[in-house]
Amino acid sequence: MEMHQVRYFLAVCERLSFTQAARRCHVTQPSLTRAIQLLETEFGGQLFHRERSRIHLTELGRLVQPYLQDAWDKTQVAKRQAKDYTSKAPMRLNLAIMCTIAPALLIELFARFRRARPDTKLELIDGTAQSIEQQLISSKAEVAIYCRPDRAAD
Question: If you classify domain 91-145 with CATH, what class do you get?
C-alpha cells in the first residue's frame, strides 16, 4: 500500500465520486481508479459499491476507512514535525578569538548572544592573529575578534 492510494481512497470517501476525488487529488480519473483497484486487490475485496450515479463504502471499506484515515493523519503530523525540526535545526556560528583577548569582556558578550540567539550553537576557535585571519580567509570561521597591531585599525 502506498500513501497516494490512501489519499485517493480518503478523497473518494469524502466526495463519494471518483471524478470529484480525482479532481481534488489533481490526477486523472483512470489513475485514481487504478490506485483504488490495487488497494482493493491488496485488501482482498471491494472498498466501494459502484452504482451508476452512486458510490458508497462496502463493509470492507467501512472497516478499513478509520485505519487509513488514522495512518494518513499520522503521516501528515510526522511530515509537519520533520519540517519544523529541519527548519529549526540549530544554527552554528564559528567564532575565532585571539587568545590574548580578555575573557571577562567575552563572558558578557557570550551571555547576551546566548539570550538573543538560544538556537545558535557557538563554536569557539582560539589562536594567534595570523591563524585567526587564515580561519576567516578559508571560511572556517564566520566571525573573528582579533587585533593586528602591525596594521592600521579597521
Answer: alpha beta
